[in-house]
Structure prediction request, 343 residues.
Amino acid sequence: ASILTGRMPSAHGVRSNGIPLSKDARTFVEELKNDGYATALFGKAHFQNITGLDREFIPDGVEGLMDEQKHIREAFRRDMYDDSYQSENQIRWREDPDFRIKTPYYGFDHVDLAIMHGDLAGGDYEHWLTEKCGDPKKLRGAENARDSDYVVPQGWRTSIPEEYHTTTFVAEKTLDYLSRHERESSSQPFFLQVSFPDPHHPFTPPGKYWDMYNPDDIPLPPSFGKGDTPILNNMRESRETGTDFRQGQVPFAVSERETREAIALTYGMIKMIDDQVGRILAHLKETGQIDNTVLIFASDHGDLMGDHGILLKGPLHYQGAIRVPLIWLDPDDRRPQRSDAIV
Prediction:
């Protein structure tokens, strides 16, 4: 939401997961569209609620601020729960096979959506997967996983083939769009958001990417096991007593073996993205567009990935979670520069 609007959460209102970006928000994509650009999004958006559950973090003592539907009353009188704010609700997509996003969507004229992560993703991806493989329920999830001796929580060897994984879906839809654009409106400039759901938990890289990196070869983070704060100690104690919850979104403590496996599987996910990005760049080169296209590579968050012995992300603002990649390639200025600024 902050990238789309150029505003801080305090201004655009999306303070946590589960709060949608207002339809009244002005986005840079909308401005590009107004300037004549074709606009499209492939993959993950997360501009609205994706789980169907209420917002993720609700502070204590807000009962007096709830309306009759038990929703927190906002500063503006807007219904942020009507159908137009259910576009990414995975429950709605799975209950209604004909459900689709209505465009324009925050400025995007074309959207092929992948909701959630790993081999559990839904949305347009689920329809695509069904066309390719039949019933996705027979392939996805830990219950359908191939045999493996990995022990990391939320890590399983998916039965979904490489060619039908979400990472491949995002690249295929991007390439299809580029080919169609060249045939039908090659003179029109375009903005594409190519948004891979990976790398992310659950750790489910497909095919050769599962064991492309050997956990035994992965060094532990230098901070592993270090740090003496109440929250770190609490997570470690919960792991030792077996009282921690390790299947959700909240960070938890991990062993050395679990850390090495999580990093190795994440490297596999990243390598698969590299390969699919390579296909897109090759297409731009083959069609003569590479020298007329600004390329921006970024992410929305990092991952603790074993730092201090903790996995996932959350309200622990260590460097691994808050630092994200940013590569900006401008064909009109190829001078290599590196900046340590906050961007």
